[in-house]
Amino acid sequence: EVRLVESGGGLVQPGGSLRLSCTLSGDTLSNYDMSWVRQAPGKGLDEWLGASQRAGIRFDYADSVKGRFTISRDNAKNTLYLQINSLKPEDTAVYYCTTDPSGLGNRGQGTQVTVSS
To answer: Closest Cα to residue 6, out of 30, 33, 37, 32?
Structure first.
């Protein structure tokens, strides 16, 4: 059974940075094209943020986060990352990694990111 654990969230001031991690167990990360999505408070729909092709060569991003968000992965560590820079209050959300490039795959419990002064 594939299990995902997201971590690295927290409370950060506007303009700050965070690196989120997503560790996969029960399989090998290199078997999956992965994605990051987020769900903001009060919004029922996920926002797709970006995807990583399994070999870690190609990365795609939503236009809304391009330039501030960077996805990377270490397949040897079975870990996917999301670097978020220049955080804004509107980035406040629960962030999930998923085992599908569209954001519809298995996910973990998420990690909360709160941007506030």
So the answer is: 37
For residue 44, pLDDT over 90 is answered with: no
Residues with Cβ < 8 Å from 19, sequence gap 6 or more? 8, 81, 82, 83, 84
- 84, amino acid identity: I
Q: Name the residue among 38, 52, 4 with its Cα closest to residue 115.
A: 38
Q: Residue 35's closest CA among 90, 96, 94?
A: 96
> What is the four-CA torsion angle of 117, 35, 110, 79, rounded to 10 degrees?
-100
Q: What is the pLDDT of residues 59-80, one digit of tens each?
A: 999 999 999 999 999 999 999 9
